[in-house]
Amino acid sequence: MISISLDRASYAAGDTISATISVSQAKPLPARSLAATLTCSERKQVKTTVVLDKYDFERDREMGQPYSSNMETKTEERSRTAYEEEKQVCGKRTFSGEEAFSVQFALPQSAQPTSYEFGHDNLIHVWKLRVKLDIPMAMDEHAEAEVFVEGL
C-alpha cells in the first residue's frame, strides 16, 4: 500500500513541494522502481457555431427541434497535460515492512493556480502528484494526491 503526505496544504508558483511517500508491505515485494510524477491537467471549454444547411435545418424541425435560426452552437471540453515532471524515487529493490521516501518538486514560476470551475478564460487546472510502484509480472500499485496551487 502506498500513501502520500505533502508538507503543506497549498503552494504558490515557484514553491518547492516536499512529499513523503510511505510504502507498506506485509510480505517482501520485489519491484523495478518507485517513481513520482507531478502533473497539471488543463481542461478547456470550446464553443463552436455551426451553420446548418437547409436539409439539416428542415430535418431537425420535422423531428421537433425548433430553431429560431439555422445556426447551432455546440460546447465541448478538451483536455491536455499542461505540465509534467517525473522523478525516480528509488530503483530496483525489494520492499518489506514500512518504508518512507522523500521527493521534492519545484513548481514553475508560471504555474497556473488550481481551479475547479470554468472562469472567464474557460480553463480548469488541476495539479496532482502521482506515485507508481512498478511490480514485475503483477499489477502496479498507484497513489495520488492533489496539490493545491494558490492564485487569483
List the helices and strands and how they pair.
Layout: E1 2-6, E2 10-11, E3 16-31, E4 33-51, H1 54-62, E5 71-90, E6 93-106, E7 123-134, E8 141-149
Parallel strand pairs: 2-8
Antiparallel strand pairs: 1-3, 3-6, 4-5, 4-7, 7-8
Keywords:
152 residues, Immunoglobulin-like, 3-stranded antiparallel β-sheet, mainly beta
Molecular structure report:
By secondary structure, this protein is mostly beta strands. It has a single domain (2-44, 81-149), classed as Immunoglobulin-like. Helix content is 6%, strand content 64%. The chain has a five-stranded mixed sheet with strand order 2-8-7-4-5, with no helix packed on it. A hairpin with a 6-residue loop joins strand 7 (123-134) and strand 8 (141-149). The longest helix has 9 residues, at 54-62.
Question: Element order, helices and strands?
Answer: EEEEHEEEE
Return Rg in Å.
23 Å
- Sheet with most strands: 5 strands, mixed
Q: Can you tell me the CATH architecture?
A: Sandwich
Termini, distance in Å? Answer: 36 Å
CATH class: Mainly Beta
Overall mean pLDDT:
91
Please sum up the structure shown:
It is built from 1 helix and 8 strands, in the order ββββαββββ.
